[in-house]
Amino acid sequence: MPPRPPLQTLNLASPKRAVIGPAAFFAKVFLNVYCKRTRTLNEQRLFRTVLDRTDRPVITVANHSSVLDDPGMWGILPWSILLHKHRMRWSLGAKEICFGTPFTSWFFGSGQVIPTVRGDGVFQPAIDVALAKLAHNGWIHIFPEGKVNQLRDQLPYRWGVGRLILESPQPPLVLPIWHRGFEAAMPEDAPDGRYYPRPGKELVVAVGEVMDFATNGVLEEANALGDEAKARAFVTAFVREKAIEAQRQAEKKIGEPDWWTTTGAVKAVNDDPPRQGDPS
């Protein structure tokens, strides 16, 4: 196995209220005013995990159905989290989209977004920086699909989330989040060809059960494989399985398991598990 590259750092903008406050206000207005209805499920799991843990890092994962997902879905959070830079998440965001100009670099960097190069693999500066945040018991959010996906089923997860969990100085608490409706609010293939948030849509944001990697035995199973790549794949597959469980439970809870065929917002794909995600 080739030697690992040394840990790297990035010059990130310091979090600024000039960005965090307006972004939080936008998220609240978007969910509660611009959209017709927002239904949340088990959101207290996220609130309590972020507010109550003092000595554990937190990772959240979510499906990625539009560019509105973040910060849009964080409108479910209370102000005590949204406006507190030490409680609020650090998110991995695509460098070519979020950091393409000096202004967007300042804006997203100030909003606690880490520039990530899609395709550069798990040993890139963004993952190293995220590990440094976890070392200080921070909260890292990641979209493990690696790109916007407006289909019903989640794509194979990239292995970056596996590395974060395996190499976090302390075993993290991991929560899966599933949301629906952002793909209708910001469709990738809008019939009129216009790319803007559609008002009056119905949203669902559901939080799955907490995965405690200090007690669930997954890290021990992964490390017993004796190979770093296999361990990352194993952990990543476990997280994806739990995220899909959260999705299915939420669909059953809202009583609309066939929403993707009745609304026409997105199309269904089969339920067969896709091929294992790759490390990029």
Describe the fold and architecture.
The structure is a single chain. The protein has one domain: Glycerol-3-phosphate (1)-acyltransferase (3-Layer(aba) Sandwich). The protein has helices spanning 17-34, 43-52, 69-72, 79-82, 95-98, 102-110, 125-135, 160-167, 182-185, 218-223, 228-253, 259-262; strands at 37-41, 58-62, 90-94, 113-116, 139-142, 173-180, 202-207, 211-212. It is of the alpha/beta class and 280 residues long. Strands 1, 2, 3, 4, 5, 6, 7 and 8 form an 8-stranded mixed beta sheet that branches.
Task: Give a concise summary.
Helices cover 39% and strands 14% of the residues. By secondary structure, the protein is an alpha/beta fold.
Task: Please give the number of β-strands.
Answer: 8
CATH fold node name: Glycerol-3-phosphate (1)-acyltransferase
| Gyration radius over CA | 18 Å
For the record, what CATH class applies? Alpha Beta
Largest sheet features: 8 strands, mixed
Q: Report the order of strands and helices.
A: HEHEHHEHHEHEHEHEEHHH
The CATH homologous superfamily: Glycerol-3-phosphate (1)-acyltransferase
Characterize the overall form: globular
CATH architecture: 3-Layer(aba) Sandwich
Ends: how far apart?
Answer: 17 Å
Question: By helix and strand content, what is the structural category?
Answer: alpha/beta
Number of helices: 12
Strand content: 5-15%
Into which percent range does the helicity of residues fall? Answer: 25-40%
Low-confidence regions:
259-280
